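retry 2 of 3: previous attempt timed out while embedding zinc ion. Reduced batch size to 1 and resubmitted. Inputs unchanged:
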Amino acid sequence: MLLKLRILSLLLLLCLVLTACQTKPPVATTAPIEPNCAHADQNDDGLCDDCTANVVIVIDFYAINDLHGKLSDTASQPGVDELTTYLKKAKQTDDHVILLSAGDMWQGTSESNLTEGNLITDWMNQLDFAAMTLGNHEFDWGEDAIEDNAELADFPFLAINIYDRDTNQLVDYCQPSVIVECGGAQIGIIGAIGDCYSSISAEQTGGIYFKTGSELTHLVKEESKKLREQGVDFIVYMLHDGAAGISGSTITDRQLSSFYDISLSDGFVDLVFEGHTHNSYLLTDSKGVHHLQGGGDNKGITHVEISVNIANQNRDIRESEVVSTGEYASLPDDPVVEELLDKYASQIAPADRVVGTINHYIGQREAQQLVADLYYDAGVERWGDKYDIVLGGGFISIRSPKHLPAGEVTYGQLQALFPFDNELVLCSVSGRNLRDEQSLCLLHQLRPVRRGRAEKYRPECDVLHHCRYVYVHLCAQWSDGDRAI
Ligand SMILES: [Zn+2]
Ligand SMILES: [Zn+2]
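retry 2 succeeded.
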């Protein structure tokens, strides 16, 4: 790259656990759990052979992934006010509830973006989340924002595999795992970010790296052994990565292998909550371990009820489900969202600013085309029209709710469609690089975008959310791979 000029973010341009616990009665209860008894249950009748206490604990996990800041109701989806009611109700009727998040919670709406995630973290505090795995989008505003949120959070951020390049140590704003004590049971939760390093802006990841593949498997196994040695009864693995395009209820080892090593299901982890791919599923792997993901963007959450025998470590999945928005969208609003919006009112005020009016419904295709044109116009305005080819990168695809209704358009609506703080960059690329798929990835997935024609985008490699839109002046033939252009 010979010349690199940046302009303001796309959006400026567009202006145009620990939980209280009570035991369900899975088996006869004859006595409360006696803390001083070591507990044994050799005949596996759910009662301690010595003190006769019920040693089977039933625990309900609720996990959210990829909320992407969807705090407020919109015309196309409910906000978290109804979800809050749903989760609070679950806690009222069952004290053995553990709330978890598999990452990508913050980036995606003005309310969340303008507070750099604080508002969502605050909401998670109100609900007593036990832990959250860091997702790639938690890095969108840099590590300082993660540290700031870590300070605000009443729960730990988890990721066993985010390492500091200088020290070769785990970064200090997250931890590999946490043990949550619930009703006498010890629940170990291990967090990991998937192999999505390349989907984070290089600027934000210069000082860190992710251990993936066999290195990650090794880390998780070691952590699992450590947790079991500490007396943990059940291990949840919370991974910011997951399956895509899987139908049915089972997943083969091969399908899993892109994000999960099946050997972890040999007793190292007992349940896996996933994220990142925004898919909705409940899958059982070849060793019987359940993998769940709730869709993302508040389209649903996942729920698993387990029982653990704390005397002999027998464990069972009693219920496992994806709870879709429809199951909670008609519940009354919990006031917590309004209270949080009030609390952060001054920071999020720009979201309500009306930036224009449209006289017809704008669907996904039209919106994307408008953006492609906008990139072009902004580039021409900045650098002149001698750069006759515009290469857009990364994620021109718009985000949920993917459309704009007719009428006044607010900054907040636009930011929900294009939440990423993209920049326009002018650079030169060699013809060879343009033709080389690998390099295209490195160059943040360039693709031709000409005025009036946003070409269909089919990524060949990992989709990049954070990208730089690149203007390239092609003065050499594409066939001449050696010449810089
Ligand atoms: Zn996501
Ligand atoms: Zn993600």
